[in-house]
Structures are given as C-alpha cells and as structure tokens.
Design goal:
Mean pLDDT: 84
Radius of gyration: 28 Å
Low-confidence stretches: 414-451, 457-476
Number of domains: 2
Distance between the termini: 93 Å
Largest sheet: 7 strands, antiparallel
Strand content: 15-25%
CATH architecture of the largest domain: Alpha-Beta Complex
Number of strands: 23
C-alpha cells in the first residue's frame, strides 16, 4: 500500500529544487556577465589606446595623414597581429580586383614572369593563343615599362600583375629589352584568355601531367589529360605538383575522387575540436601506378592531392619535403567599406586523420632539386629535369614490381629506357631514397615567395565554408 507524501514535505522539496535551480542559474549568469564585462573592458582599453595614439599623432605628426591608407594599414595590422600565417586583409581596390579576376572582367595577356635577384622582370614563357603571343612577344625579354610605368619602381610581382591585367578589348604598351641591347615595343590588345593549369605529355609508355594550380578549369583539363593517357594505353602516370600552392577544396575534390577508390579523403578540424567530412571519393578509380612529384613550393590542396594518391591509390611521392600548409582559409568576407578579410578557420586532416600543417609531406623517395631553376619549373622538360625523369623511373619500377611488361620511357634526345631493364627503383615508401637532381624552389618560404608570377593567377576564393581557399601567396603570375 502506497503512502502519500505530506503536503508540507512536498512543498519543502519543491522550494529546495527551485532554490537550487535559481542558484545555479545565477552563478552561470554571473560568470557569463563577468566574462562579457571583461571582454568589453579589454576592448574598450584597446580602442582607448588606439584613440590615444591617433590623438597624439594628429597633434604632433609633421607630415600629411592619408586617412584611407592609414585605416587600411590599421586593419592589415590587426590581421597580422593574429599570427595567422595565411590571414589576408584586402583593401577595397584589391578586393574589387580579385572579384573582377574571378568573374572574368579583368584578363591578363598570357605571360609567365620571373623576378630576378637584381629586380629585373624576365619573361620566361609566352602562352600559345594569348594576347602576348598574338602581339609577337617572345620569352627571354626583360619588361622595362608597362604603359609608361617603369617596372624598377614597382614593389613586386603583384604590382606588375595589376598593371598587366585589364578589361577585355583594352590595350597596353609593353617595352622590353632582349639580349641587353635590343629594345622592342609591343602594343597588346587584351583578350579573354585563361592560363592553363594542366599540361600533359605522353613519354613512351608513361604519361607526365603537370598541375600548376587547382582552379575552376583544372578538373576539366585534368580529366581530358588522364583520358588521353588511358587511350594511349600508358602503363603509369606521373603528376607534377611542384610549386603548386594555389587552390580551393572545391576545385580539388573531383580530381582526387576521379583517381581514388571509395573513401573519406579529408576532414576539417574545427576550432572546438570537432571534425567535419570535407572530401569523399566514390568507388570509381584509375587503376594505374601513380607517382606525385613535389617540392618545397608544394602546398595546401597539392599536398592533400599527393598524400591521397599515396594513401588511397598506393602511389609514390617523389621529390623534396613540401611546404606544410595544412589549414583552411575562409572566403574573403566583405566589410562595409568594400574591403575584405580572410582568416584561417580550420585545420586540414588527411584520410588517416593526420595533419601535415607546419611539418610538410616527406617523399618516400627523395630527389634533390638544387639544379632545378624557376625557369625550368615554369617550362618543365622531362629531357633535362632530373626530378621528372626520376619520377618516371619510379613509375616504371612500380610496373616492374607487378611482373608486367614495363615498356619504355621516352623523353626524346635518345633517353628512352629499355624495357628489359628490370632494376627496381620504386622504393617502399617506408624510408627515404635520395637521387641526384635539385630543388631551387625549396626555399622554406611558406607564402610561396615573390619569385615568379602569372597575371592570370590569383587567390581562389570560396563561396562556402567547407570549400574554402587554401591558396598561398603570389608565387606565379601570367599576364
């Protein structure tokens, strides 16, 4: 038989419960209030300090103050103060230019340019079909003036890139010097032209495919290159992503998906420690031995590409240790005055849950690259590039390891490899194998440096948090 609880006892229990609930709520609210007050107080102190500096400077500074430039530098300093290696502040002009590049309003003229140690801007490549090629511009010349502006007065490749770009149909005047004494003037009418990010060659029984960046057109061109290789019945693929540190996840995922079997390719680690799936691949895959060639300029999505081919496709990585850019950056967030900022919002994790941020990716087979110049990287030639040839040898050795006919490597100039050569150069990936070659680009500069540029390149922004940009600085410009 159940006993009823006296009303007085029930009332007492209820009052105690309400008191405890109120106390807990009060404590939590006070903690939240205190934290908020501390945050507000800190912010007020920071703003007060800035106001003090501003008051003093305006009262005492001898020179003229350009408020727009001052505010841009203050905003840039804030982003710099975060310690975010890849955080970027865009001025209104820079952000507008970025948008115009992405929507095709601004176009380049089709040049690859190298800034030499003495400050000379050297043309190292002219793309076929580009405005520059149509105007008769050839490689080897030094750009002296653009529309009357002396290039020696420019701050760097970014500034030159801005001069070369313009609206389709507009003209620019280019003054170049060849062989020190021969001066040439070119009038170039800008045309719609996209610098190719994928180039391929069939070298005997192997395909060499270079990916210079991951952009909007990369997947289409890459798919075409791989299909051509398959139609040629090649026995192996070599992918060159040296100095590739530009691209967003949304431009990379389909390429990895095309090559790799079903798997979770990458996750992002959020600021609260949780993880979110970023890239997956389906059951379709390319069933060929694969080698990825990397160097110190390989960063971001190119590093993920290399690791994915290794871990999911059984491929090999050849070259030198990569940059170590294993974070994701947000799409530029437009501010009220037309400027914008982009900051790191997550860490990139591979299919195995590992991060290569800061440490880079160490190749299973190391091939020195100190004799590989920037010009050689912008104009890859398997006949003279020892790293490319070594990567081809590794691909062939992978075929030999299966007992199949490995065919030949033919890079021209009598450098084909006899099919009867059964030496094993593939390595196991467990250790490191060193060969002759070099990597002049392996400078350790995580931003990609300011060595070469293409006026059609630019930071690829992203429209969604999951596919954010992981590009690095201005390492390549085509005009």
């Amino acid at each position: 038989m159940s006993r009823k609880l006296p009303v007085s006892v029930a009332l007492a229990i209820t009052i105690i419960a309400m008191t405890v609930t109120f106390a807990i709520t009060w404590i939590v609210s006070m903690n939240t209030f205190d934290n908020t007050v501390r945050s507000v107080t800190q912010l007020q102190a920071q703003y007060s300090k800035l106001a003090e500096i501003d008051t003093y400077v305006r009262a005492n500074y001898y020179g003229e103050i350009d408020d727009n430039a001052l505010f841009d530098r203050v905003a840039s300093g804030y982003v710099t103060g975060l310690g975010d290696r890849y955080g970027v502040y865009y001025t209104e002009r820079e952000y507008t230019e970025l948008q115009n590049i992405e929507n095709g309003t601004l176009v380049g003229i089709g040049l690859e340019i190298l800034r030499e140690t003495d400050g000379t801007y050297r043309i190292v490549r002219v793309y076929d079909g580009s405005a520059a090629a149509r105007a008769g511009v050839t490689a080897g010349g030094a750009i002296v003036r653009v529309d009357g502006v002396e290039t020696r007065e420019l701050a760097g490749l970014s500034a030159l890139k801005s001069l070369l770009r313009g609206e389709e149909g507009t003209e620019l005047a280019l003054h170049c010097v060849y062989d020190v004494v021969e001066e040439k003037d070119f009038t170039i009418r800008r045309i719609a032209f996209t610098t190719p990010t994928v180039e391929s060659q069939i070298l005997g029984d192997y395909a060499y495919i270079r990916i210079s960046a991951f952009g909007p057109n990369t997947y289409t061109d890459f798919d075409y290159a791989v299909r051509l290789a398959q139609a040629a019945e090649v026995k192996g693929l070599v992918f060159d992503v040296r100095n590739n540190n530009t691209g967003a996840a949304r431009y990379t995922r389909d390429i990895i998906d095309m090559l790799c079997p079903q798997a979770t390719v990458a996750r992002r680690e959020n600021r609260n420690g949780t993880t979110t799936v970023l890239i997956t691949s389906d059951e379709n895959a390319v069933e060929l031995p694969m080698v990825v060639l990397v160097n110190g300029g390989t960063g971001g999505m190119a590093e993920l590409f290399a690791v994915s081919v290794r871990d999911l496709c059984g491929g090999q990585i050849v070259g030198t240790r990569t940059m170590g850019h294993g974070t994701l950056q947000s799409s530029p967030q437009r501010l009220s005055d037309g400027s914008a900022i982009s900051v790191t919002y997550a860490k990139l994790l591979t299919s195995t849950g590992e991060s290569f941020d800061l440490v880079g990716v160490t190749p299973g087979i190391e091939v020195d690259g100190t004799n590989i110049t920037e010009t050689m990287l912008l104009n890859p030639n398997p006949a003279s590039d020892t790293q490319i040839y070594r990567a081809l040898e590794v691909a062939r050795s992978m075929v030999l390891a299966t007992g199949a006919d490995a065919g030949t490597i033919d890079v021209g100039q009598g450098s084909g490899v006899d099919a009867s050569d059964t030496s094993d150069a593939s390595g196991t990936g467990d250790g490191s194998e060193t060969s002759d070659g070099s990597d002049a680009s392996d400078t350790g500069d995580e931003s990609g440096g300011d060595a070469s540029a293409s006026d059609d390149s630019g930071a690829e922004s992203d429209d969604s948090g999951d596919d954010s940009d992981s590009s690095t600085a201005d390492s390549s410009t085509s005009g």
